[in-house]
């Protein structure tokens, strides 16, 4: 009986190996599998443009209802998916083995996450967002209202359909092509946790917006969220390179708003198509590491005029340092070109800080003199820039003083002391001769 059981387990392992082999890696961020959890499978058709965009870029989507009992993101200790999309704002509990801790562990393992909420957002979705540094309005019925920046082309007088155009200023996150048309947003707002420096506003509300329950009577209490403090869409890049997108609107991903024309109130500009498709598509490229993903290779150092790395340096040696940095373009690695990459020669504190020159083909290099201090140093490259994955490189090298036979035979600055010594010896002989032979 043991042999058939072993054969069955081996067959199961072989069946899952292709999923594990094609998973995301820092060296090959492509051929990725994404689990999409939906409140209703009808969202596959109502939000098909968003899903088709992902499929056209080579992603393999696995659709499941959020309460499907077969849900599992890990098998045999390995994650089967590289990204997770939660378009299930009203779900109180995930099916299968997935729960809030499982989602957070998924992100902690370096995987990416997209969360969409709406006015029916459950405590589960709110808690996941809170763990990522985003706090939705405490009023479960509150939505974002704006009497100045609403979309007049959709529903005249519906001030909950906002035409937002306050985007994050980053070509890495939103692409090089400017988003001309406003983005249509209908949903709930959130604020950023001031204690979390990793979370950023990707789409902000205008100064005239506020969060309230539109069906309730007027209240004397001011809204808890208002003005530009309201974030409509936020992004997070964790220290482990995992990326997260949190939106307060599920409709924002829908075909209806992708195709809708838009005219912002108070503006004469009318657009045949909203900016939703461009905004979501470009932002998803960044979330899934199709842009802004860096890798470093070939960190090298050597004495000037030599090619081999020494085991140690001597104080005041002249050395050369180089490293190669590449960026993923979505299909291949291309040279990353920047003028702000620096290297530190570090021991307790940086003794040397140099900005690296680049040949614009991925190679960064510089040269400097080893400081007149001996000990154990490190070459350190700490590169952190908005929208890019951070690079943290280090290489240890000892620095020794001069040996006793490596000093110069005669030191120029010591000539006065040499002169004083010889003049004293000469004076001693003269004095001795005068003293002994003088009558």
TrEMBL record:
<keyword id="KW-0256">Endoplasmic reticulum</keyword>
<protein>
    <recommendedName>
        <fullName>Dolichyl-diphosphooligosaccharide--protein glycosyltransferase 48 kDa subunit</fullName>
    </recommendedName>
</protein>
<dbReference type="Pfam" id="PF03345">
    <property type="entry name" value="OST48_N"/>
</dbReference>
<comment type="function">
    <text>Subunit of the oligosaccharyl transferase (OST) complex that catalyzes the initial transfer of a defined glycan (Glc(3)Man(9)GlcNAc(2) in eukaryotes) from the lipid carrier dolichol-pyrophosphate to an asparagine residue within an Asn-X-Ser/Thr consensus motif in nascent polypeptide chains, the first step in protein N-glycosylation. N-glycosylation occurs cotranslationally and the complex associates with the Sec61 complex at the channel-forming translocon complex that mediates protein translocation across the endoplasmic reticulum (ER).</text>
</comment>
<keyword id="KW-0812">Transmembrane</keyword>
<feature type="signal peptide">
    <location>
        <begin position="1"/>
        <end position="26"/>
    </location>
</feature>
<feature type="transmembrane region" description="Helical">
    <location>
        <begin position="415"/>
        <end position="437"/>
    </location>
</feature>
<comment type="similarity">
    <text>Belongs to the DDOST 48 kDa subunit family.</text>
</comment>
<comment type="subunit">
    <text>Component of the oligosaccharyltransferase (OST) complex.</text>
</comment>
<dbReference type="InterPro" id="IPR005013">
    <property type="entry name" value="DDOST_48_kDa_subunit"/>
</dbReference>
<dbReference type="InterPro" id="IPR055459">
    <property type="entry name" value="OST48_MD"/>
</dbReference>
<dbReference type="Pfam" id="PF23358">
    <property type="entry name" value="OST48_MD"/>
</dbReference>
<comment type="pathway">
    <text>Protein modification; protein glycosylation.</text>
</comment>
<feature type="domain" description="OST48 middle">
    <location>
        <begin position="301"/>
        <end position="438"/>
    </location>
</feature>
<keyword id="KW-1133">Transmembrane helix</keyword>
<dbReference type="InterPro" id="IPR055457">
    <property type="entry name" value="OST48_N"/>
</dbReference>
<feature type="domain" description="OST48 N-terminal">
    <location>
        <begin position="33"/>
        <end position="287"/>
    </location>
</feature>
<keyword id="KW-0472">Membrane</keyword>
<dbReference type="GO" id="GO:0018279">
    <property type="term" value="P:protein N-linked glycosylation via asparagine"/>
</dbReference>
<dbReference type="GO" id="GO:0005789">
    <property type="term" value="C:endoplasmic reticulum membrane"/>
</dbReference>
<keyword id="KW-0732">Signal</keyword>
